[in-house]
Amino acid sequence: MNRHYACITFDFDAMSGLVARGLTTPTPVSRGEFGAVALPRILDLLKRYDIKASFFIPGVVIGTYPRECEQILAYGHEIGHHGWTHVPPANLTPEQEEDGLIRGIEKIRELTGAAPRGYRSPSWDLSTYTVELLLRHGFLYESSMMGNDHEPYRVRQGDVVSVDEPMQFGKPTPLIELPISWTLDDFPHFEYLRVGQSLAPGLQNASGVLENWVNDFEYMRQTCDWGILTYTCHPYVIGRGHRMIMLDKLLKSLQEKGAQFITLEQAARMYDERSLFHA
């Protein structure tokens, strides 16, 4: 029997992603605050469809919004690691990265009673040390890379990347990758953002984004017997009125197409059973 899965995921960054970009004045901070306003409406929508989602939360956000994070947990959703701050690992020293990883693990353990099984890097930018650290600290999966669209795979370690020589691929590790894509992320489509001389225009019509997101699932359904498609949203982005209507339509459309909704941890365990790791 065909099995087509959809993972609805949220990066509850609040203001941490903006602060990490140096935007610390009142307006960008308030922009992040809207995530806490939007969260209850998102949780209510997921409950209406009986969907369990995966929420990735930086440690500083758990400290800033403990009640909201407790509410996510109370609704039965997965809570994954999203850094201590929202500074990308690629911008940290190995010592800073591991310190933040440990602090985030402990904050999630304090919230949930258990260490997180999944990791998603801030800004989807891993360092050359991240995989080693995730393996060292017992993570089952990570979800920050784009080497496939709806087929999980094992994360490699030891790639050699050179500007003027062929790529040398490292060896697969037990760590499972649940791939993502900027095309299935709400932020680049919707957020207007100025940082220095750069501009992210965003503000796209939600109907066009909805069509793309539904069609990616439809393509998976037409071309493979088994697959997992991961959508990434941010409460302060998707939580605006017209985008909430879009999210509602997305969940309804996927449901009508036979999507089975699972968390990323469930997806990783399912893949692990289908494709046993051989060292």
UniProtKB/TrEMBL annotation:
Signal peptide interval: none
An individual GO BP term: carbohydrate metabolic process
Any matching Pfam family: Polysacc_deac_1
Coiled coil stretches, renumbered: none
Gene3D superfamilies membership: Glycoside hydrolase/deacetylase (3.20.20.370)
Entries under InterPro entries matching the protein: Glyco_hydro/deAcase_b/a-brl (IPR011330), NODB_dom (IPR002509), PgdA-like (IPR037950)
GO molecular-function term, one example from the UniProt record: hydrolase activity, acting on carbon-nitrogen (but not peptide) bonds
NodB homology domain: residues covered: 26-262
Name of the molecule in the record: Polysaccharide deacetylase
